[in-house]
Amino acid sequence: MRARDEFFIGFFPIPPGLRPFLAAIAVALILLFAAAGWFAASTQAAPEEAGFRFDFGRQEVTGVLSLHPYPVIRVTEGSERLAAGRTVMLSGGGKFAPPQAAALDGRLVKAGGVILRRGDLDMLQIGGGDANLAAAEGEAPALSPPERLGRWRLEGEICDGKCAAGAMRPGRDLSHKACANLCITGGVPAVFVSAAPVEGAEFLLMAGPEGGPLPPEALAFTAAYVSVEGEIERVGDLLVFRIDPATLRAL
Amino acid sequence: MMLSPAAAMSNRVARIVAVQTAALLMDLARLWLWAGAAVSVPFLLWGVGRVEPNARDSWAFRPLLIPGVLLIWPLVLWRWFLLETGRDDWAKRHLPPRRAHAFAALLLAVLIPLTIIAGLAIRQGPPAGAPVLLEAPE
Asked: What ipTM describes this predicted complex?
């Protein structure tokens, strides 16, 4: 049989004349897919390291819980990683606010959970049950009022604070948007990821114009690069961006 | 960073053109699918049984063909026409596509990477605008 008549059939031994060719193709394909994978990965944004910090252990803090615009705790007695004076956003399991929080607005509470951290963004994921979020003994102390920082126009992205803090890799496009909107409508704090730091902060807790949750029309602009105007105030160490939804503009 | 009025206007025009192009593409896609739906009704009710003996008196599989007909309805119409009018020459049926395989393979080998690279190259990057204080606190 002439070499040119050799024919590859998967379930028969490889014809000797085809072996170098098939070996070269196999190596080329491995290299090609490795290169394609590297190329696709190199085009993605590489945000700083973030995620659940189970290595910090369970954090238990005492503080005043506020549900406006989203659940946050203003820490009065801190833990190793969350010092007193901090204002920390809270989430429950999955894409929801901690369900125990609804009855505790404005009260002194003891909260326990695991930290999610990206840069200067911290979130405490509260475990289920009263052992993880319950009223503490004593009255809520008077806290410093919010410090007004003026009206700003910012460019950046509206995300949910949990995925942005590292529960998931920040994504792109439609699936990222659907994920963020599910989190935000589930009561997870919405954050504005600013293109450049504002008063030292890259992540701002978002609120509607009256200080409540984000208005529904803002959900059309999540997970896209936008420009928006609004009032910024500092609550503890957290900046709150009360947006004017009429000024939301896709970039 | 504030844009100059001319640059801002140019940005607005570019966005309007992009939105109108997207709307046009969506309208064309919708029209294409409606045409496919119009073809799929007579083809799946009558045509497929007339041109394919194995399909006669078989009904359960026909709804499964609807998505395919929606997409490739011109080809369905063309094949239906050939088979109905007896112009189909089954022996030659696959010859033209076979002749085109080499060219198509080369074309796809170039077009697919080009499309991916172009898509990545024109993808929107993060904004660079610095925060602007519009009104200082009272």
From this structure: 0.81
